[in-house]
Amino acid sequence: MRQKIYAAAFVSLTAIAIGSAAYAAKSAENDALDRSGATIGLTQAITAAEQHVGGKASKAEYERHKGQWVFDVEVVKDKQVMDVTVDATSGKVIAAIEDKADHDDGHDKAD
């Protein structure tokens, strides 16, 4: 009987330890919590992206891309959606490509 109790306690503690480790690892991967690579703010990155495309930002994220910290800003102009990458240290637009997946996406529209 005692062995069953010990075994159950061991399994429970192991599950808790694994869950805690997984949570800690996931938290460490959250790009938004590590702003050490950025010298510009989100507002500045959004402004740069909007000016580059001539539209309005609908979404922005801070992330590590190809070993570099960047702001990824989604900008909408007319019926075109652009993904604009802004360097997090200089504030310069690195790339701007059309986001075909979000272009005229009917399921996102309100009825």
SSE inventory with pairings:
Blueprint lengths: L1 H27 L13 H12 L2 E10 L2 E10 L2 E8 L5 E6 L13
Antiparallel strand pairs: 1-2, 2-3, 3-4
Give a short account of the largest sheet: 4 strands, antiparallel
**The CATH top-level class label of the largest domain:** Alpha Beta
End-to-end gap:
62 Å
Report the strand count.
4
Which CATH-level-2 architecture of the largest domain? Roll
How many H/I helical runs?
A: 2
In the predicted model, the low-confidence regions spanning at least 5 consecutive residues are: 24-28, 107-111
What structural category do the secondary elements indicate? Answer: alpha+beta
Spatial strand arrangement across the major sheet: 1-2-3-4
Order of helices and strands: HHEEEE
What is the count of structural domains? 2
- In round numbers, the mean pLDDT is 77
Question: How does the overall form come out from the CA principal axes?
Answer: elongated
Instruction: Kindly estimate the percentage of residues that lie in beta strands according to DSSP.
Output: 25-35%
Q: State Rg.
A: 22 Å
- Oligomerization state: single chain
> Could you please say which CATH topology of the largest domain applies here?
Nuclear Transport Factor 2, Chain: A
Helix content: 25-40%
Brief digest:
The chain has about 110 residues and is α+β, with helices and mostly antiparallel strands. It has helices at about 1-30, 40-55; strands spanning about 55-65, 70-75, 80-85, 95-100.
Architecture overview:
Strand 3 and strand 4 (93-98) form a beta hairpin. This protein has helices at residues 2-28, 42-53; strands at 56-65, 68-77, 80-87, 93-98. A four-stranded antiparallel sheet has the order 1-2-3-4, covered by helices on one side. The chain has two helices and four strands. The protein folds into two domains: 1-33; 35-108, Nuclear Transport Factor 2, Chain: A. By secondary structure, it is an alpha+beta fold. Helices cover 35% and strands 31% of the residues.
